Inverse folding.
């Protein structure tokens, strides 16, 4: 199974007055995780994918916060592809601390769209990527 | 049933290169919605609640994106309290456009903690607020 | 002299672990101020301006922080046009508290560009707006 | 002369609908640059400094935007200490692209304060750090 593990150092800007990382930042971290996953799996970048007119907006997201991340912490985003049959993509995420503790988990669902945000079938625009994703979700 | 309806004007800073509001901003909007709900229900502010040592971090969040919000749009956040029995609070949110279309829905779960982020029972520190929340969830 | 005064309520998300509004948010507040100024002066929205292919990126910015804004505070952004002769626009900002204290001041410089980010002369694409800006800076 | 050079990969979240990095993010990048500079020079972290009750809020900031950074770009933040005589600290920043083009420059001014945000003299609370900063600004 393909798993991407990306390191992130918590930024001061990401904290709030509770003294911990504001919960909305985990969605930005998940985004970094899945773009790195795509880079690793498809041998392209998400930036390149968008230039080709293939966009991947979020349709659903779920987050579970276990332990707060703090400023200066090193955290790891582990991303894997949980579901893909041709239309809907679901990514699973686990955020862990340096010592291996789980800080947060979650998933995001996505559909491929073109630049006008109209749904497209990836198979019709890039069969290679479609097959790589199909393989990854089975593996 | 108590429902808070708060108006938000989409900021340029909230857009991304897809030309729509970045999905992470809805968590900040939900936050505005529930702090306004608390203000309306408990006749206090969330800022004042925190000064009294009662904090309400997010433990879970779910978001479903129906239609994108765009820069300059006026959107409405409708917030209601879905669950509360003394420990866990669940808020429900609906984001609608000016014309009444649903742009997004979601919920967030919370537990009360003190400044050291240790769980507390609201009943033990503020019985009035506890009762108001109990009433609101039944109503 | 045209002055726009826009009210903003500080968001929880805008705080950092120092317990105050993170300094980067003032640039987003200035942005709200100048788009409201444009709306007031030109009887259009900045969103509409962009749809017409007239964009106004920031080329320089200066900020001076006098007193911190805090979560829940109501602040006012006062914006005026300081300079415009046909090319470069400079806006001046003052952020004040409810009691009238100055929290921050600053300015931003801008040049008009088209969607490909190429410089344009406003006079050549919209003479009315050009004249309104010329009048505002003199007034 | 001590110069810190820190690499940043542009995040999708940092873009706006102009298709470029929103100008407010450079303040967060400068912040990363100066905390890395401090780490390199003082052999401590900014997080540790704050735990010791020494905070470094921004009092002034200036930014000049030369060329836009885009999603997926690798950029470098070069930070050096420009001024320090015991009270006021000024850091200088240059943001460059992978090919060495200057994307932005700027500076931030700071004063040391304690947790209550009251001004302090660094020399009185940590003489070693004071001397290291004095040396760095001369070097």
């Amino acid at each position: 199974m393909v798993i991407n593990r990306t390191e992130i150092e918590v930024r001061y800007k990401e904290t709030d007055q509770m003294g911990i990382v504001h919960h909305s930042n985990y969605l930005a971290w998940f985004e970094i995780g899945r773009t790195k996953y795509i880079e690793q799996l498809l041998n392209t970048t998400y930036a390149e994918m968008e230039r080709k007119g293939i966009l991947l907006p979020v349709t659903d997201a779920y987050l579970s916060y276990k332990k707060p991340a703090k400023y200066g912490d090193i955290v790891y985003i582990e991303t894997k592809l949980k579901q893909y049959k041709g239309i809907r993509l679901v990514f699973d995420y686990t955020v862990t601390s340096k010592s291996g503790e789980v800080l947060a988990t979650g998933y995001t669902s996505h559909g491929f769209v073109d630049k006008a945000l109209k749904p497209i079938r990836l198979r019709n625009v890039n069969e290679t990527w479609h097959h790589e994703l199909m393989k990854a979700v089975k593996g």
